[in-house]
Amino acid sequence: MIGRLAGRIEYRAEDHVLIDVRGVGYVVHCSERTLGALPAPGEAVALWTDLLVREDLLQLYGFLTLGEREWHRLLMRVQGVGAKASLAILGALGADGVSRAVALGDWSAIRAAKGIGPKTAQRVVNELKDKAPGVMALDHAASPPASPEEGAGDAVPAAAPAPAAPRPAPPQETPARAEALSALGNLGYAPGEAAAAVAEALDAAPEADTAALIRGALSRLAPKG
């Protein structure tokens, strides 16, 4: 299994690039969106990859993020979605867009991809909706939250400030909570409603990981009735 390639782009074509890795050239098929984000020929590149193996075919697909690769693998499991259709969906929406559409049940967004009919789009949403939180967590875990700011200098004030009124302790910040809030923000939820939903999910399952928090928060944000 070839999971990642790092080398130099030799040439670009309409649907693939050739990457030279220490003298060996790999043909890597990519979505239109990924191809547009790659550097020019002669420059260095690194891609996550997935190898499709069939009786008469070995084909390598390349992705900029782990989330994009994971969506490709999941989309390929849906009836009526092959490699070409998967790349069309990812090219039209991107990994974040697919996560948003699937998590929110927006099959019309999937339908916007070239060659995807309404029945296939509905199958994608229905079959993969439970998988969206895990993929969202996968990408957000790669971007740890920023560390708190350092104290502002060592100067001593002329007079001690009056004691402030006690405030309720803020929710304990954890990587899972920060990643869940970031993922919900990418889905378009306002910070306040996302924070409230994540807090409820944390109350119900204090040891939940990022994917479980996203899943729990989404269930609380889903329209009732």
From TrEMBL:
A single MF term (Gene Ontology): four-way junction helicase activity
Region of interest called Domain III, as start-end residue ranges on this chain: 160-225
Biased composition (Pro residues): 163-173
Keywords linked to the UniProt accession: Cytoplasm, DNA damage, DNA recombination, DNA repair, DNA-binding
A biological process term (GO) from this entry: DNA recombination
Region span, Disordered: 138-177
Pfam families the record matches: HHH_5, RuvA_C, RuvA_N
SUPFAM superfamilies: DNA helicase RuvA subunit, C-terminal domain (SSF46929), Nucleic acid-binding proteins (SSF50249), RuvA domain 2-like (SSF47781)
Subcellular location: Cytoplasm
GO cellular component: cytoplasm; Holliday junction helicase complex; Holliday junction resolvase complex
NCBIfam families, A to Z: ruvA
Domain topic, free-text comment: Has three domains with a flexible linker between the domains II and III and assumes an 'L' shape. Domain III is highly mobile and contacts RuvB.
Name assigned to this protein: Holliday junction branch migration complex subunit RuvA
